[in-house]
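Lab notebook, bench 4. The sequencing result for the construct came back, and we need a structural model before the next group meeting so we can plan mutations. Quick request posted to the team channel:

Model the 3D structure of this chain.
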Amino acid sequence: MSLIVFKQITKSYQEGLRRKKQVLKGLSLEIKKGEVFGFLGPNGAGKSTTIKILLNFIFPDKGEVRINGQPVSNPQVRKYLGYLPENPYLYDNLSPQELLLFKGRVCGLTAQQIKKRMDEILSRVNLFQVKKRPLRTFSKGMVQRAGFALALINDPEIL
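Done. Here's the predicted structure in token form:
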């Protein structure tokens, strides 16, 4: 079974008062577990729109998207996803440790699972030594690494 399935996805946006711009037309795609997949294309090709539909941030006009056989509208599919937006907003008064604890709880991890994953991930992104410092004291690169750690805390199948 495929991990991600897009079936005949169509999406249009309103452009001006009367005109619609179709950015996706009949997109069908299957991605199997273990595959590495990326989107390439010019501005306006529908790359970001496709990702937003996968994350259930926006809805297609037609078609369906499934993750592990479940529709993306099912809240249970969130456990499979790790997402880092281009410009994430992270509360700068919190530390990486506090952010990961919060996200781990939201994802249903136990305190023991969070602690184990947190130390491993913060070491991997080179933030272990500063895990208790507030993000407002971090450089932009350090904040980006904290965001990446946040996307990894629930050990997602899809990143």
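Residues 33 and 50 are 19 Å apart (CA to CA).
Will bring this to the meeting.
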